[in-house]
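Hi Prof. W.,

I finally got the Chemotaxis protein CheY prediction working! I wasn't sure whether to trim anything, so I left the full sequence exactly as given:
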Amino acid sequence: MHAVNVMIVDDDDITLTLLEHIVDELVTGEILVFSSSIKANAFLLSEDAQRIGLVICDWQMPSVSGIKILETLRTKSKNCPFLMITANPTKDLVISAKRLGVTDFIAKPFSSDDLTQKLSVLLEKISPT
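And this is what came out:
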């Protein structure tokens, strides 16, 4: 288990629940869940954003995109790992996200095992067990 606070952002409730369940198995820290990208972006603009150690975020969401969430995070934290979830990993998305400092990607649909493996690698870098 890793003592890391994790922020999860996805407008799909089923994906959000799955992500929260998997993260809950890996961390002892707080898990902040946002189904609204507007609220997630506002949170990242607040002072409370400093307590986040990992962000997991969908790319395509209404109102505020995952790229915008990543941009906002990078204004506050250059080193916080960011896992981008996308159903459409186009070359343009990958280039834009890499330029902004995305840490890793996972494509939808993903298996629980694939997500757990990616998260375990990221969490080990943040908070070795």
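The longest helix spans residues 112-126. Does that look reasonable to you?

Thanks,
D.
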